[in-house]
Prior knowledge:
By secondary structure, the protein is α+β, with helices and mostly antiparallel strands. Among the domains are: 54-110 and 178-271, no CATH class; 286-367, CATH 2.40.50.140. 32% of the residues lie in helices and 23% in strands. It is built from eleven helices and 15 strands. Strands 10-15-14-11-12-13 form a six-stranded antiparallel β-sheet, with no helix packed on it. Strands 1, 4, 5, 8 and 9 form a five-stranded antiparallel β-sheet that branches. Helix 5 crosses helix 10 (240-256).
Amino acid sequence: MLIPQMAEQAFAQVGARCRNAALVFDRYTPEIRPNDKGEAKREGLKRVVGIQPDAALLAAARTRWQAMTQNAMQVTLQTDWRLVTGVGRNTPYEVGFHFNRYGVIGLPGSGLKGVARSFALLQITDATQHQIASQLEDILLKDDADFDKEWTHPAYKAEALAFRAIFGHTHAAGRAIFYDAMPTGTPRLEIDVLNPHYPRYYQEGRAPTQWQSPIPVFFITVAAGTPFQFAVGWRGNPNPNLLQKAQAWLVSGLMELGAGAKTNAGYGYFVEPNAQAAAQPAANAVLLASEPPQQQPLKQGKGRFNRKGNKLSITDDAGEHEVLKSRVGDAAFNSLPGDRSIVIYFYDELEVNGVLQHRVWRLVKIGK
């Protein structure tokens, strides 16, 4: 008997009692045949998102988290749109997902430290007008003597020293402690889909020809508006100023760089609690000159708005989508977001010369 068939039998016996989505995701994968078009995987993921975690277990875990972080600085943020993490894990579903041991979404502290560190490095790079961030990072990581010799921006030395104290360098560990994030309630999971139009190009390296059939790839995400608690602590003698700076860098990184995977496509960004989740066009959306046909519901994406010269476009994981200036009214053009702004865009799809393109109808700026 095949292992997937045995897993099916086991799930039929115990599945109704299972309260751990991670267990179902990792161990109770349905049988997926080679000619499957994604439906078996989708049905398997429906099992996962339908699991209701043990509320008492999660409450006890949150109590322990609060006790562990009682001397740390805490902050609560919520997902602006969907969040996905752990996509690189090996799984029959093709796209992984990171659950913690309680069967809910996990955001490891090591990854959060990376978010804060990346934002801090970008901020210092911009302030010093350094051309290459990696070269500046090399200097920040040197020992004290070499750092003093090679640092050439005296006005920003305090920021550099804060970076070294918080994140460490080659001769000393960082003093800041970035704890795993904890969802404040029961996170709602949703199924999302990638629909690559050139599967043989991505899987086999063949030319992206127009006669290839799209094969949907389903994966799990955390829903928009899901609140998480974050905490940053300090090793050794307290330093409130540096601790506050570490937390500020983390919060700014989560809001402007995002956490997890697919951040270029708008996943993983956070906002302050009770902020309106990015599920509908905002009241201050930039509308393009004409409205789409009402019978065609708009799809939603998220990416970086590019405003360079005479070309307007949006870049996300699927590529670059042009925004035609000829379809932007004069008043709307002046209110378009600045270059490299993070935007939500609303679009429909149109086939042009055999190529499926996005027609962007609305833009909403949500970050820098």
